[in-house]
């Protein structure tokens, strides 16, 4: 079995024997015997070639198509991405998490890997979909995420900027849009025209101290 840990805040260590999935090219070092293989279609989640193809098409259409490699063997693998901060989330049996594909570094093989519709992102780079990971096993499974700076974990109820969100547990958020005015279209608003609202008690939301660039930038100085 493979388990994840963090070292130096900037690297994930995958220890043990077996197989897991990681962002392609994220390996920076390893000890032991491992084989690294790019997955053209992604994990099949037990659905064979048809399941892998369907999942690949879904991720391609939704923009959640992170380049993935399969890592199999025994020993230790060190993973990192552009000196981003690394955190490991331990999913208990039955738990799930939504993660932005650009913030997903690695996950254990037994997790179900798919996409889910969120319903926001008209102007935001956050997009309409997110990557969905669920633990359908009887053991704890690991997910490694990366953030641009030290992340902050907030418990619902809360509202967050779509361009700063990294991951969340529980139900998908509601989209709250501010009343439109002429200032909205010439870039003279506060920049907080809409946000994601999480209402489920105990729901955890992870954000990063860095916002993605908005998809629309029209302004008058």
Features:
221 residues; mainly beta; Double-stranded beta-helix; 7-stranded antiparallel beta sheet; 6-stranded antiparallel beta sheet; 2 helices; 47% strand; disordered C terminus; AIM24_sf; AIM24
Descriptive report:
The protein is mostly beta strands. It has a domain at 2-148: Double-stranded beta-helix, CATH 3.60.160.10. The protein contains two helices and 16 strands. It has helices at residues 48-62, 182-185; strands at residues 2-7, 11-23, 27-39, 68-79, 85-91, 96-99, 104-108, 112-117, 129-134, 141-147, 152-155, 158-160, 165-168, 174-177, 194-198, 204-207. Strands 1, 2, 3, 4, 5, 7 and 10 form a seven-stranded antiparallel beta sheet that branches. It has a six-stranded antiparallel beta sheet with strand order 8-9-6-13-16-11, with helices on one face. Strand 1 and strand 2 form a beta hairpin. The longest helix has 15 residues, at 48-62. The protein is globular, with a radius of gyration of 18 Å. The protein starts with a strand and ends in a 14-residue tail after the last strand. Residues 120-125 and 215-221 have low confidence and may be disordered.
Ordered list of secondary-structure elements with their pairings:
Elements lengths: L1 E6 L3 E13 L3 E13 L8 H15 L5 E12 L5 E7 L4 E4 L4 E5 L3 E6 L11 E6 L6 E7 L4 E4 L2 E3 L4 E4 L5 E4 L4 H4 L8 E5 L5 E4 L14
Antiparallel strand pairs: 1-2, 2-4, 2-7, 3-4, 5-10, 6-9, 6-13, 7-10, 8-9, 11-16, 12-15, 13-16, 14-15
């Amino acid at each position: 079995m493979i388990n994840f840990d963090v070292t130096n805040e900037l690297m994930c260590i995958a220890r043990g024997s077996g197989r897991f999935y990681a962002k392609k090219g994220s390996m920076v070092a390893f000890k032991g015997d491992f084989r690294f293989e790019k997955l053209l279609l992604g994990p099949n989640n037990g659905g064979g070639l048809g399941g892998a193809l369907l999942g690949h098409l879904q991720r391609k259409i939704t923009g959640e198509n992170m380049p993935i490699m399969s890592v199999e063997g025994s020993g230790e693998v060190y993973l990192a991405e552009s000196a981003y901060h690394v955190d490991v989330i331990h999913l208990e049996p039955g738990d799930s998490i939504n993660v932005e594909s650009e913030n997903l570094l690695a996950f254990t093989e037994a997790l179900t890997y798919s996409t889910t519709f969120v319903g926001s992102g008209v102007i935001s780079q956050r997009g309409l979909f997110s990557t969905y990971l669920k633990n359908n096993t009887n053991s704890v499974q690991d997910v490694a995420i990366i953030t641009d700076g030290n992340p902050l974990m907030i418990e619902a109820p809360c509202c967050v900027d779509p361009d700063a969100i990294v991951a969340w547990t529980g139900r998908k958020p509601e989209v709250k849009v501010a009343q439109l005015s002429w200032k909205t279209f010439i870039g003279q608003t506060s920049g907080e025209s809409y946000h994601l609202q999480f209402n489920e008690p105990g729901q955890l939301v992870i954000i990063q101290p860095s916002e993605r660039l908005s998809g629309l930038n029209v302004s008058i100085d």
